[in-house]
Amino acid sequence: MAELNKEFCTSYDIQGGNQGFASELGIRHKVDPNSTYYFQPITANSKARWTDTRSVCTPAFDEEILSEVIAAWGLPIPPSPSSCPVKVEGDYFVDLVISKIGGNPQLWTATAKYCGFPVRSDIFKNCGTKCCTLGVDGDSGNGVAIACEHELSGPPTWFVTGSLAITQFGDNPYNVKVISGAGTLKACGKSGCSNIVSF
Fold it and tell me: How far apart are the C-alpha atoms of 140 and 110, rounded to whole Å?
């Protein structure tokens, strides 16, 4: 696949069940933009694949990108490779903690930590005796802590009880501002919920 420019097109009847002479998936070669290699999995004229001087699939009025072909054929999309070298398994878990920002009683942030023993200080740089901080606060410049926060915890969903009213603080979904009222506040991510704070 290295010699291809990854340009794909399909004919108009792909959504109609891939029927007829025009049902084809074309892959255009990078070395020759005027020549297309065609693959036709279901065909009316018994051709499975051939080379043509056409630069695009024909009819050309319904060319689609590969993701649309995948959707039309109902093919599974493989998951993206993980950027996080650790998992939530065995004795390892994610602890989501909410705390004040700079001691301000109105501003709160959610911080995910990867916990377990032995502590994974070989991967994360901001670690204590049991947990390593994920996200921006735990990043050492290689992006691993940020990737792990995204994969293991994700942006939190904030929950309040009573009359407590909050709003997102700035553009960061990990931060909220308490506006008014009384009640409790907590945040939940992919791996569980945080401590509960009362107001």
Answer: 19
Q: Please give the angle made by the CA atoms of 66, 69 and 73, to the nearest 5 degrees.
A: 145
- Amino acid type, 195: N
Contact 172, 187 (CB under 8 A): no
**Around Cβ 184, how many Cβ atoms within 10 Å?**
13
Those residues whose C-beta lies under 8 Å from the C-beta of residue 52, and which sit 6 or more positions away, are: 35, 36, 38
Which helix (H) or strand (E) element contains residue 29?
Answer: strand 25-29
pLDDT tens, residue order, the chain (199 aa): 333 344 555 443 444 444 444 444 544 444 455 555 555 554 445 444 555 555 444 444 344 445 555 555 565 555 555 689 999 999 999 999 999 999 999 999 999 999 999 999 999 999 999 999 999 888 888 889 999 999 999 999 999 999 999 999 988 899 999 999 999 999 999 999 999 999 9
Residue 138 CA to chain centroid, in angstroms? 20
Cα distance between residue 153 and residue 95, in whole Å: 9
- Strand 25-29 and strand 197-198: pairing? unpaired
Closest CA to 137 of 177, 97, 187: 97
Helix, coil or strand: residue 146:
helix
* Neighbouring C-beta atoms of residue 77, cutoff 10 Å: 8
